[in-house]
């Protein structure tokens, strides 16, 4: 990639003299390290924050797909959350894989007690098409989880799962956003990455609209993009950015991570969470 074609490098979040911004991820573990808790924590570190985790499920996962998944008991999730929030405190929260209706409801109740920004990535399936959310949990996502969200970040498959709206072109993104906003989040960031052409996302609160556009890189190694984007938005919100500025910076970060994605194993490799630390001379 030439220097002129490299994505714009976003700023890291500001750090106070006392400590970096504190961001909590509530999500599943990806043993392959490309998505889930692992991607979230890498993103938070790359952008200058201190990441903390509440693990909701453990997956056996690699570049070829998900070979198994085991959710944790609600008490384990609740105790992890209280342990972090009550002692260390958080400035933003990101949610990912919640697996079951019971865990969705448990996490939603915990989030409802907070006053910090919450980014909900309503994870339904993996990059390889493996189910990561029980079908009977969709109603809980709609009625309990999404109303806690400052920003919801569904991809097009998740929009269809949650709302029934099918997006075939950029013109449909506005209709999809309206359907998601009707479920209660303050902002919807509809990811249009599955469409053809440039990678265009729509961020809206129903009044303001921000179209986030980036070139589409010819790179199949995109495992972890959704987790990475949502975690980046949460990190920038923890750093004091407003939602449009946070989403714009997060889009820049994930675009660079996609451009530098690399092969691992025999399937789809991960995005490069550490690309900001690489020399800017191109290759």
Share of residues in strands: 15-25%
Q: So what's the overall shape?
A: globular
- Major sheet attributes: 9 strands, mixed
Structural class: alpha/beta
| Low-pLDDT residue intervals, each spanning 5 or more residues | none
Q: Widest sheet: strand order?
A: 3-2-1-4-5-6-7-8-9
- Report the span from N to C terminus: 5 Å
- The overall strand count is 9
Q: Helical amount among residues, as a percent range?
A: 25-40%
Run of helices and strands? EHEEHEHEHEHHEEEHH
Task: Write up what this structure looks like.
The protein has 283 residues and is of the alpha/beta class. 33% of the residues lie in helices and 19% in strands. It contains 8 helices and 9 strands. A 9-stranded mixed sheet has the order 3-2-1-4-5-6-7-8-9, sandwiched between helices. Helix 1 (36-46) crosses helix 7, helix 2 packs parallel to helix 3 (101-111) and helix 7 runs antiparallel to helix 8 (243-259). The mean pLDDT is 91.
